Amino acid sequence: MTKNRRYFMILLLTLLMTLGMASLAYAAGGVVPAPEGHTPHFPNWYAIGWTAVNFFILLALLYKFAFNPINKMLEERTNTIESSLKHAEQVKVEVEEMRKEAQANLAESRKQAQEIVARATKAAEDAKNEIITKAQEEAENIRQKAYAEIQAATEKAKIELKDAAAMLALMAAEKVLERAITDEDHKNMVTKFINEAGDLMC
Amino acid sequence: MFTFGMLDGVLFHLGPIPVDHIVVTQWAIIALIGIVAFMATRNMQMVPRGLQNAFEALIVWTYDFFTQLMDKEHIAKKYAPLLSTFFLFIIVSNYSGLIPGAGQIPGYQPPTANWNTTLALALITAFTVQVAGFAEHGLHYLGHFVSPSPLMLPLNLLEEIAHPLSLFLRLFGNIFGEEMILAFMLFLAPFFVPSLLMGLSVLLAAIQAVVFTILSANYIATATGEGH
User: Fold this and answer.
1) Per-residue buried b or exposed e for B144-157, using 16+ beta carbons within 10 Å of the residue's own CB
2) A74 CB near a chain B CB, below 8 Å?
3) Is the pLDDT of residue A30 over 50?
4) I want to staple B4 with a disulfide (CB 3.0 to 4.6 A). Which of A86, A102, A174, B183 is the partner?
5) B60 contacts A62? CB cut-off 8 A
6) Nearest to B104 by CA among B195, B180, B178, B174
């Protein structure tokens, strides 16, 4: 579509140009005339000289407006591109360095975290063990103390019981005999009784 | 006699110096190229756009073209502006013959269809070749006239004359012939028929500009190259 339009434009322009030339020719003389003129004489040194001068004027103009500014711009562009590329290379190296550093940091951090976790785990384990040991020790202490207390109380009760029994036995014996018991009797009876009672009780 | 507007008359005098029609046409062409160049490079941007891009591409293309053609880069760098100017001047001159009115309005004709113009251009090339040879090789350049043996001196001298002569006649012959045929066709059949030939002329004008420039570059390269 675009291509066809382009060809159509070219054809149109060509026809327009032809028509333009033809109408110019008609305007000049009604019918296309053979234009007037005479063969250029040769050599026309004035024309040759003028052409050379004109050529160098054009050369100077192009130096001023084309070659110099364009060369300068090209040089500038080369420099800019070179420096841009260099800068890009530098940035790339920097990024690579930063990446490596970050990776090293990450590895270090990971290692440290692992260490911390290990240390914490170990500390917790130690604390646990310590607490258990302490608790066990304390329990043992309490048990022993209680046992000792019980022992003491038993002993005490035994002695108290012995005294009471002796007193009762004495009173009962007095009643039975209805006489005072001599120290000798007393001692014997008591001992005998206690031994019997003690055997019974224990 | 049909001369088809190939009027080589004096338009006016600048003091004692006569100014021909073709000289004025050349001025118009130079002004056109100069204005385009000025517009293109007036506000140079780092990233080229539009006219600047096109003009830069043209200059860089011609420069690259001549660098490839010549062995030595410093020679190419030195003479590329001259050759680019040849190219621009000749191609715009040739195309000026396609503008309606060229060859019909008396006095208005493409400058390159006039043998005085092409002779001037060929002479510039001839002198440039000799100057370039001396500048590159010094007096050793004279040695190439007698190489490979002094017997070749007449032939070598003839070659130095034949080169610009061929440039002069080729460009003139092609453009003049094309203009003649165009004018004659317009005279015979003003509608449609010349369009075909005009299409061909567009190609021919560009080819002649390229040929003139390439040959000039080649002569300069030969004169400055090794082996002299």
Assistant:
1) bbeeeeeeeeeeee
2) yes
3) no
4) B183
5) no
6) B180
